[in-house]
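Worked Example 4.2. Consider the chain below.
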Amino acid sequence: MRDMADNPQAEPATPTAEARQPHRARAAIARAMEAWVAVFRRKLSAGELGALPVVLVLAAVWIIFQALNENFLSPRNLSNLSVDIVGTGLIAVGIVFVLLLGELDLSVGSISGLAAAVFAVLNVNNGVPEWLALIVAVLAGTAAGTVQGYSFAKTRVPAFVVTLAGLLTWNGLMLYILGTSGTVNLDENGLVAKLTSYYFTNDGAAYAVAAVATGMVFLMSYVGSRRRKSVGMPHRSLRGIALRTGAVAAIAFATAYVLNQFQGLPLALLIFLVVVAGLDIVLRRTHYGRQVYALGGSVEAARRASLGVTRVQTAVLAVSGTMAAVGGLFLASRITSVSQSSGSGVLLLNAIAAAVIGGTSLFGGRGSTWSAVLGMLVIQSIASGMAITDTPTAVQFVITGGVLFAAVVIDSLSRRSQEAHGRA
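Applying the procedure from the previous section yields the following structure tokens:
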């Protein structure tokens, strides 16, 4: 009591210090946001648009179709959308690898149909266990891609020519394997059928995946930032990492909440995201991935740097073939059948369009596996919106074509801007 009487200013000292804490926190957040905006503006001026254009297009598509039909953003439709993107999306992920080389793989549709036919004939017609037939089917896609990749690397014939020949060859082989039956129905309770029909109905599963994803993003961003800082390279600040992680957390937990309003987390979506994240790590954080980007920048420079050009090019087409096979199995799972039309139609065009619309450059050297996810979301959102608004399919093709053309134009303008700034 005597101390308080002798020093009347001592009592308010603690509340004043505490009152300053919120102001300091707000100031720190404001500084982090200002820094992020400055970096964002610098990237825009240099032509480094990133995922911004496709995100804006996706937002516009969702807003328009929600205005036309209030069921578009319903949990049921969004859950179905998350499963519908998987089959073609997996094929598009393989296309991303090829586009990073500045090449094109025209055979992925035929390879997807071939893999589905191999599985169906082995399992249904010949009684081979599903797990073994599935492995053989995927390996068939890997073998097809490897043959094309080695031919492309050794002959130096453009990949689109080699894979155009592959398109005809693998389609003919698929028809031969299916034989006169034409259509093979899969077991609706089998392993492959459950790839797209199984859901984790426990709400905790979706939230657990969201939490793990958020933690992985923070950990990898933090470790990457520390590594770059240790060698004197530009790096993200801790506040920047926190903001990025917070954005990912908001998206992840919002997605988990929406999915739980219907049937829960789809197994197909979980597999898709794990594959995309895993291959993204391969591209960005391994020696092989850096070689892929290097070849996309300049094959001749890569040869002079003694990079294994033949090995990398062969491996890239093998990855594309493998992903096409896996995607084909998911497409077969969705309709629980394989027919002579499997892998045909607009499948090839949608896979390529998804990779390009998502932001992977046609000129090579720029893009990521997440491009396939964003691009596929745009394409399938248009298809879903057209379906629930009873719009003719012809209009869907026109709109998708327009979005693809816009993506190519943006890619070209972005490259010119980067060249002007010495970044291309």
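Confidence is low (pLDDT under 50) at residues 1-5. The CA atoms of residues 37 and 43 lie 10 Å apart. Compare this with Example 4.1 before moving on.
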